[in-house]
Request: fold
Amino acid sequence: MSAAPTFADVLQARDTIAPYLRPTALYPYGGLSAAVGGEVWIKHENHQPTGAFKVRGGINFMAHLPEEERRRGVLTASTGNHGLSVAFAAQRFGVRALVVMPNGANPVKVEAIRELGAEVRFVGRDFDDCRAYVEAAGSDGMYYLSSGDEPLLIAGVATHTLEIVEALPEVEVILVPVGGGSGAAGACLAAKSIKPRIQVIGVQAEAAPAAYQSWKQGRRVEAPMETFAEGLATRAPFELPQAILRRELDDFVLVSDAEIRGAMRLLLEKTRNLVEAAGAATLAAAIRIRDRLQGKRLALIVSGGNLTVAGLQELLNGTRQ
Amino acid sequence: MSAAPTFADVLQARDTIAPYLRPTALYPYGGLSAAVGGEVWIKHENHQPTGAFKVRGGINFMAHLPEEERRRGVLTASTGNHGLSVAFAAQRFGVRALVVMPNGANPVKVEAIRELGAEVRFVGRDFDDCRAYVEAAGSDGMYYLSSGDEPLLIAGVATHTLEIVEALPEVEVILVPVGGGSGAAGACLAAKSIKPRIQVIGVQAEAAPAAYQSWKQGRRVEAPMETFAEGLATRAPFELPQAILRRELDDFVLVSDAEIRGAMRLLLEKTRNLVEAAGAATLAAAIRIRDRLQGKRLALIVSGGNLTVAGLQELLNGTRQ
Reply:
């Protein structure tokens, strides 16, 4: 396993990404505060140029990649937002990128990755199939980038929480979605280093609880993956973020796909932002555990907004997505 | 008529609003560039805390309002986004605000204005009814703020274009929606002062062409107002922005409500941003005049995103809004 990133790495990541990415907005919303009973602030990672937080990590990784590795190109597996991050960073740094995605991947993400000049290859039915494929098949001489176990990715995405704590020092609870776990690990790393009293709560889908169960049991557990929220959809946890979460995460909440859909609708209505399922999971969790959030100052990380028009239509018409 | 604002006022406005508002994103989108045939950059005013560009003006105005006027409170007429701007600024500066809105105003905007602590009063059927009401009825001792003829509002909103030209100095054409005309006047003021060769093109709805006709004829013309795009819906132009537009605006394009709806759908699909009708008008115009935009570098000001869920549903289901 790679060495865990430190808070110094997060501070360095902020400087590294600054020429490429502007800090995202953190706004309070009265309509959401009323729904939760605490003071709700939304961290708008959906405003990133790729529509998702992962790009912070992609830039931080690519900026540190030695020239020799850059010439080999970068290979990775992704359901979409990590791939978009890699494609965006690869374009900026003039690196070839190949993203292995599951068949049936979110077409908005596939199209955006291709528009950024990266190559897409479809393998298997979910993220873990893609991960197994790239890890087994080797990388055709390309550099293999793990979406979970790379410290530069964790330090990069941690800058979202650094921005939250700097903009809102009196924040008491931060909710963060967990897919592979790098975002949540980064949130812990940044928040706990600045102010250990800030509670960091991870959120995963009931229908894809691998990271949750691994965290609960203190060991690597695989679990079924049946959520529609592709950003939360992993069957197996990653070692490096799990190690950080085990040490630092205060709590872990599961939410149903129906609760996520309700939160997506509420975000549309109260913030006029298109939010994808993983991005709405934190609001779904805040509503589920509202009894213990009363009167508290909360930051919810809305991790991304890459929803398809078809998905939006199904959401609004109340049919299953 | 108030004195026209100068470029120095725009630079000062940027400093004035900086503690309250962060510069908004300006992103290129391959999917939109393909649709237009030029290089399309979107200025994301929908990312503002009020979901619309007007807040730049509201903050700039309120920051300069003398203490005595602040104590009287501020009265204004608005279809929504200007009212939201005033409510946001009034809350920040501890000023009472009363916003007169037409019956049937966009409920998302009404709710957001009230959440910011401002009072709402419904009058008549459209913006001009509200404007006539506040101008005739007097202001109950409150300070009356015109949404169009106030130089501090124009200098404030002009900062969107200052940000565009600074971030993308090689921009060739800027498209800006015209309702009352303050945003377009501000765009001219900022762009032409920095680089007179930048073309600034205003966009209005065919179904509400008062500002267009006034600009064409060089005199104040009223026109019917039947567009669904409330941000473009004025029956009579304002003097101060018209004077600037007459002098500075390069061209003025009208678009149909159907074209606006098509552009809203395209923005959803290609940028994953919820954009209200007025905000999508610039993309509709760019598509309409695409023949003369081939190969050019364009910035489209997406002025706001305050669309209701019902409006979104109708948009996606293809029924009229």
In short: The mean pLDDT of chain B is 94.
